[in-house]
Amino acid sequence: MATRNAFYAQSGGVTAVINASACGVIETARKRRKYIGRLYAGRNGILGALTEDLIDTSREPAAAIRALRYTPSGAFGSCRYKLKSFEQNPREYERLIEVFRAHDIGYFFYNGGGDSADTCLKVSRISGRMGYPIIAVHVPKTVDNDLPITDNCPGFGSVAKYVAVSTREASFDVASMAKTSTKVFVLEVMGRHAGWIAAAGGLASSKGMEIPIVILFPEIAFEKDRFLARVDELVKKHGYCSVVVSEGVKGPDGKFLSDQGLRDAFGHAQLGGVAPVVAGMLKQGLDLKYHWGVADYLQRAARHIASKTDVEQSYAVGKAAVELAVSGRNSVMPTVVRKSNRPYKWGVGVAPLDKVANVEKTMPRDFISGDGFGITAKCRAYLEPLIEGEDYPPYRGGLPAYVRLRNAPVRKKLGAFSL
Amino acid sequence: MATRNAFYAQSGGVTAVINASACGVIETARKRRKYIGRLYAGRNGILGALTEDLIDTSREPAAAIRALRYTPSGAFGSCRYKLKSFEQNPREYERLIEVFRAHDIGYFFYNGGGDSADTCLKVSRISGRMGYPIIAVHVPKTVDNDLPITDNCPGFGSVAKYVAVSTREASFDVASMAKTSTKVFVLEVMGRHAGWIAAAGGLASSKGMEIPIVILFPEIAFEKDRFLARVDELVKKHGYCSVVVSEGVKGPDGKFLSDQGLRDAFGHAQLGGVAPVVAGMLKQGLDLKYHWGVADYLQRAARHIASKTDVEQSYAVGKAAVELAVSGRNSVMPTVVRKSNRPYKWGVGVAPLDKVANVEKTMPRDFISGDGFGITAKCRAYLEPLIEGEDYPPYRGGLPAYVRLRNAPVRKKLGAFSL
To answer: Is-catalytic flag, B232?
Structure first.
């Protein structure tokens, strides 16, 4: 097998550990010189390939690549862009081959979630369909934890840890204030379709450290009266409670709870979060003093409190992707395989990409308690190992010393391409 | 001097490090048995004294007290309750003396901000005014950093670190997404009257790690057009930017920007945050895709990312309070004194309480850049040492192993008291 160059890109919403996967890909590629010549990164995901906007990662010193392991976000830029089917837009595929050929790219690594797996699958079929030899391997990443086959998704464990830690800390705060002031703290977390992230809020309460928490899942239709009754019960018993609400919670009418038709004084529609909506109900329905927060990007960027397990798995799938590729495996994705819960043991497996792309794994109903407001022991057993361990970045002047790569461009060989 | 008991309580909004001050008070009191017999904590601040709801801290093992150093929030419960003047409500003072006398309390330590300093000052005057001998020392604490005389306030450094770290992390995120998606991230932070906390967002950008950030201070009247022009300029130059907005930002009319007269579909008033208001302006005025977050309690409870400097100073003022008290100093507050910036050196001083109570220190105008959207070099030199150093709590099962005290009540000797 001749030495060929490789392409790596990051896609979709970024995470605290997607760069750890990049680190795994690049460090492993550097050890496989027999197969992989240069590793080019796409600037802003697949757009980098389409527009021939390539970054020469060989220009980055080893220390900078090592620092990717503890740097959040996408070091090469990400994108939200889905390739159309070959029939709908053959021009895009022809262009990809043109760019791959110009730069002798024989390996394609795409780091993303479900939509990105679809892009990677399409690229993997170029080989058979259009006669250009390329091996495409998907590197899994998504805070949503909704990819199938893999036990969990790199990126999720760190969000889960952030939400669990933050919920515990804010609950301590509201417990202190409850006697004369705030009695409920509402935290809004990510999760449009699946409640994995909200579920992690439940970990804040553990044996010997019980905390009254109500979780609102997108999987459970929101019923205001039942919710108010539950909060009322907990506040009467404990003096306070915390609410962790998924951004994707819907009412019985199927509409997002955050979509309350808010208007400002001029009648303009305002997009609010779901946390203030829920908090408003507590005020109106129970006359409880509340505080609310919206974690938004903070939760998925919080490398400072990343899960060590998650960092290690993110690196491992990056490394495995390169090893699969150089052994000739096309159209696959490395997965995390759980071997045991206590002690937690895991390994890396492999899944065919056509079984991954466009398939969404939702939360099993038996992970959510009967009343719909909490997590079950089964869910806890699944989640706990994923937030295990701390993996602190180095600090300089009180701030994490994250790396910014120089991202030197590869000289273009082709003409421009309009998307 | 005879051995007498002491009273300690926590007041106002809690912080990530108020318990570190409690730790300093209790550990030091335990070493001063010659002066201090038992140290009683008030359950929920001064309410614990008024209702004779006392906690016997001598029942807590040394390890639990040590753990307070890394546990956020108020371990004994806090309160928002201001004593009226003696003339307005002599009954309260008579009751305090009754409780103090019943439990032989000769030392009073009150841990809080400006309002609490006023309570402590009033108690310190009981001695002269009502003939009951007591020494009252205030232990400074406030995330608002608005107490006078002290160089900075214990509690502030950790919020500042949280905001700086979070702004850096979220900025990395939005920079990755900006090409095809989100271009601006808006983070709402605390600060009703003073912009100290928002200013800390400016630390996210530093030499060699420049990040485009717009800060909105409560001290600067918000002008929409100037704000939009500034964001537009930064996004055009860098492709993205972050906005850190203080909850207390007001428009030229002096009204809170968060107070937009929001109504839901039924016409009910909704209390939103200022972050969605600002984000909405970016969408309407510049058609920029945005994300927004509201840190709320997370910022002041985030012991997991506390500033080591802040933890040490919080402990030190607790310790100093006891030492001042046993040396007979009534009606004072230990302060943090800055001795040099580089290297940062500090010590503990002392301020008379009547110069502290009800005085608010605002941000000097020369800490805010000319255009009103950033911090000056002078502000940076002031802030930087305060976020220096990490002081991680121990973890168990992926979560910080914070302590919950047993908080055993002291047997009551008096009848009930209605507030």
So the answer is: no
